Design the sequence.
C-alpha cells in the first residue's frame, strides 16, 4: 500500500511560475561576456571578489562573497538552478525490514514536485538495522537505475530514457535483465556493515543524459511555451545536483537518518554533480566527488586531461550555453574549481582518483584543493594537510582530503573503503553493527 509520509506546502497556483523564480539572494546582476573578462593563468583566489576587493571578515565571506560566487558559477558555467520546489510530496512505495538477511531495511520512495509535468524521482534507501541512533547516509545519483545496485526483484525499474550501452537496456529503456548488474559499484552491503545508510536515484529521472534538454526537468522549468531556456539555462550537471537536494528534502524527514551526517557521493559526471550539490546545499555535510575531472574537480585552466572545449563539444547539455563561450579562453573564467570547493567550506571534501585516469587530471585536482585550502584556513576549518600529492594508496584524511589508487576510471568496493574511512574520520565512527 502506498503511504504518503509528508506533504509540504502546496503552491497557490497549481503550475509553477513561483518555482521558476530563483531564490532572492540568487538574483543575478548583468555580468560581462567572456571576452571582456581579464585572462588569468593562475587559479583565481576565492577570497578576492569579482570587483577585486579582498575578503577580510567571516561575515563578508558568508554574506557577500559566497552568494556572489554561487551566482558566478551559475551564470558562467552550470546555469541557473531553480529554487527548491515548495510543493514536494514523498510516497513510500515499498518497505522491506528484512533486507540483506535482516541486516537492513530497504525503502523505496517516490518524490513528486511541481511544476505540472515535472518528472518524479524514485529513491532507493537502504538503512542498517543494528544501530542505537539514526544512521549517517551517503546520497548520490546512479548511472543505470536503482534496480542495478541491489539484487532484489521488487525494486522499481526506471521509466525514463537510458543510454543504450548499459546492460539490459532495450530501446533506451531499462529492463529486468539488468537487475543487480552494478552491485559492486555501490557496495551498499559494505556501507551497511559499517553503519551507514545509502540513498540513491537514477540520474535520468531528473535529466536523461542526452543532448537537447528535451525531457527530464528541463521543459517543466522553462517559461511556458518556450523550448529553450536561453544561454544561462541549467545543464544536466546542475539538474543532477538539484535532484540530490530533492532527495535530501526527503532524507531530513526520515527518522532513521541522521540529518547532520549526510554525505554526497558521485562518480565522474555524477561526481561533478556531487560537488555542485554540496556547494549549493549546506545540508550536505561532506562531499566525495569521485574521479570527477573537468567541470567538477579538475581545473578548467591548463592543458592536462579533458579541456573545457572538449567537454562542451561532446556533452553540450551538461553546462550552460555561456560556458561554451570559454571554450578557447578558459583562463578568462572569473573563478576556477577551487572556488567551487570553497563554497563547500567548512565542510569536508575528499577527491578520489586513479593513476590510469589521467583524463580526469588527478594532479590538477590536487592543485585545486591546495588553492581552496586558504578559504578553509580563513574559516578556521583546517584544510589540506599535505603540500604534495600523496603516495598511491595513502589517504590524506584532513578536512580537504585526497586519495589516488592504482587502476582505471571506475567506482567499486576498494573506493568505498576509502569513502567510508574518510567519513569515519570526519563524522566520527558510525557505530557499526557487531
Ligand atoms: C567522459 C567525460 C568526462 C566524464 C566521464 C564519465 O569521459 O569526458 O568528463 O567524467 O565521461 O562520466 O564517466
Sequence:
Amino acid at each position: 500500500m502506498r503511504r504518503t509520509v509528508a506533504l509540504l506546502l502546496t503552491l497557490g497556483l497549481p503550475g509553477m511560475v513561483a518555482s521558476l523564480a530563483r531564490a532572492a539572494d540568487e538574483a543575478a546582476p548583468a555580468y560581462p561576456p567572456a571576452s571582456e573578462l581579464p585572462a588569468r593563468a593562475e587559479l583565481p583566489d576565492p577570497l578576492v571578489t569579482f570587483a577585486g576587493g579582498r575578503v577580510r571578515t567571516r561575515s563578508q565571506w558568508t554574506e557577500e562573497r559566497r552568494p556572489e560566487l554561487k551566482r558566478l558559477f551559475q551564470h558562467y558555467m552550470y546555469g541557473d538552478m531553480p529554487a527548491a520546489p515548495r510543493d514536494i510530496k514523498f510516497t513510500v512505495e515499498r518497505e522491506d525490514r528484512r533486507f540483506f538477511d535482516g541486516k537492513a531495511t530497504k525503502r523505496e520512495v517516490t518524490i513528486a514536485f511541481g511544476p505540472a509535468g515535472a518528472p518524479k524521482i524514485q529513491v532507493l534507501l537502504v538503512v542498517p538495522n543494528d544501530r542505537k541512533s539514526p544512521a549517517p547516509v551517503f546520497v548520490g545519483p546512479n548511472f543505470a537505475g536503482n534496480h542495478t545496485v541491489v539484487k532484489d526483484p521488487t525494486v522499481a525499474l526506471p521509466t525514463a530514457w537510458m543510454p543504450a550501452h548499459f546492460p539490459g537496456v532495450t530501446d533506451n529503456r531499462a529492463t529486468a535483465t539488468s537487475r543487480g548488474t552494478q552491485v559492486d559499484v555501490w557496495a551498499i552491503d559494505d556501507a551497511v556493515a559499517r553503519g551507514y545508510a545509502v540513498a540513491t536515484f537514477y540520474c535520468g529521472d531528473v535529466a536523461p543524459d542526452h543532448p537537447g534538454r528535451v525531457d527530464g526537468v528541463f521543459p517543466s522549468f522553462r517559461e511556458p511555451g518556450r523550448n529553450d531556456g536561453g544561454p544561462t539555462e541549467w545543464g544536466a550537471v546542475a539538474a543532477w545536483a538539484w535532484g540530490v537536494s530533492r532527495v535530501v528534502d526527503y532524507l531530513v524527514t526520515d527518522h532513521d537518518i541522521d540529518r547532520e551526517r549526510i554525505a554526497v557521493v558521485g562518480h565522474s559526471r555524477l561526481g561533478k554533480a556531487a560537488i555542485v550539490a554540496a556547494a549549493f546545499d549546506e545540508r550536505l555535510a561532506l562531499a566525495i566527488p569521485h574521479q570527477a575531472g573537468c567541470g567538477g574537480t579538475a581545473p578548467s585552466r591548463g592543458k592536462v586531461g579533458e579541456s573545457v572545449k572538449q567537454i562542451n563539444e561532446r556533452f553540450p547539455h551538461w553546462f550552460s550555453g555561456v560556458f561554451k563561450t570559454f571554450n578557447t579562453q578558459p583562463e578568462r573564467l572569473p573563478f576556477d574549481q577551487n572556488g567551487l570547493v570553497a563554497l563547500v567550506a567548512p565542510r569536508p571534501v575528499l577527491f578520489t582518483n586513479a593513476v590510469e585516469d589521467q583524463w580526469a587530471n588527478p594532479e590538477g585536482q590536487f592543485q585545486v584543493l591546495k588553492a581552496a585550502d586558504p578559504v578553509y584556513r580563513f574559516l578556521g576549518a583546517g584544510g589540506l594537510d599535505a603540500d604534495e600529492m600523496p603516495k598511491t594508496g595513502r589517504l590524506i584524511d584532513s578536512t580537504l582530503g585526497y586519495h589516488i589508487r592504482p587502476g582505471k576510471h571506475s567506482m567499486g568496493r576498494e573506493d568505498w573503503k576509502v569513502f567510508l574511512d574518510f567519513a569515519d574520520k570526519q563524522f566520527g565512527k558510525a557505530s557499526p553493527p557487531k
Notes: Residues 58-78 form the longest helix (21 residues). The pocket of alpha-D-glucopyranuronic acid is lined by residues 268-269, 293-294, 306, 311, 359 (CB under 6 Å). The radius of gyration is 20 Å. Confidence is low (pLDDT under 50) at residues 1-26.
